[in-house]
Specification:
Layout lengths: L1 H12 L2 H9 L15 E5 L3 H12 L3 E5 L14 E3 L4 H7 L2 E4 L13 H5 L6 E4 L8 H10 L4 E4 L19 E3 L10 H19 L15
Helix pairs in contact: 1-3
Length: 221
């Protein structure tokens, strides 16, 4: 998923659609392309996916700002420039050239990206959702993309999946759509089973305290 995020960032910053259009029309056109170095990535929901994404973003020379429900957990993370609570969401939106949403879906986070949140976005922002589709008000997202509040979006998840053919998101040229398969690598099922087996061994040897990737039924993630 972290690699997917960097793909989306580069896709729009290097203007890959323009290269593709020129190739299709056999047009040789030299134009200036952007770079990721020096830009700011905001990460909303800074868990293991956010950490992996921040590490890659830092390798590109990006500034990384993040928010999570318990920011104290990440206060010493070397891959982020600042970590804040979820009450700083609009501030993160306003600072970020690239906004990565990877929060968990709970009753309190459903449609956390609303019309008001999107209006706080930095001009020219690229919005990337690798969390859950229902974290976003898709009608408000469509409007923000169509009217230019957001420059572009990379979307791997949607409120309804498969994404209905009638969804207007399909028709927006500034949206990169993937079918909830950004992390569907050749080994992902094997890796998941291997992790489960290792957790079984851990539990038999050391009980609950030795487990990894623990999910809280109370918190919902």
């Amino acid at each position: 998923l972290a690699e997917y995020v960097m793909l989306v960032c580069s896709h729009f910053q290097k203007n890959v659609p323009r290269w593709q259009a020129n190739k299709a029309s056999k047009k040789w056109e030299t134009f200036t392309v952007g770079e990721l170095r020096g830009s700011t990535m905001g990460i909303v929901g800074y868990g293991s996916i956010g950490e992996a994404t921040a590490k890659l973003a830092k390798a590109y020379g990006m500034k990384v700002v993040a928010c999570r429900r318990r920011p104290e957990i990440s206060k010493d993370d070397p891959n982020i420039d600042s970590i804040r609570g979820m009450d700083a969401l609009n501030d993160i939106m306003a600072e970020s050239d690239y906004l990565v949403l990877c929060a968990a879906l709970t009753p309190s986070t459903e449609k956390m990206i609303s019309q008001g949140t999107l209006q706080a976005a930095k001009t020219g922002q690229v919005f990337i959702n690798i969390g859950r589709g229902k974290l976003v008000d898709e009608d408000a997202l469509f409007t923000a993309l169509k009217e230019g509040t957001l420059r572009a979006a990379g979307l791997d998840v949607f409120a309804t999946e498969p994404l209905p053919e009638a969804s207007p998101l399909w028709d927006l040229p500034n949206v990169l759509i993937s079918s909830h398969n950004a992390d569907m690598t050749p080994s992902f099922r094997h890796d998941s089973v291997a992790c489960f087996v290792e957790n079984c061994r851990n539990f038999l040897k050391g009980g609950r305290d030795s487990l990894v990737n623990i999910v809280s039924a109370k918190e919902g993630y």
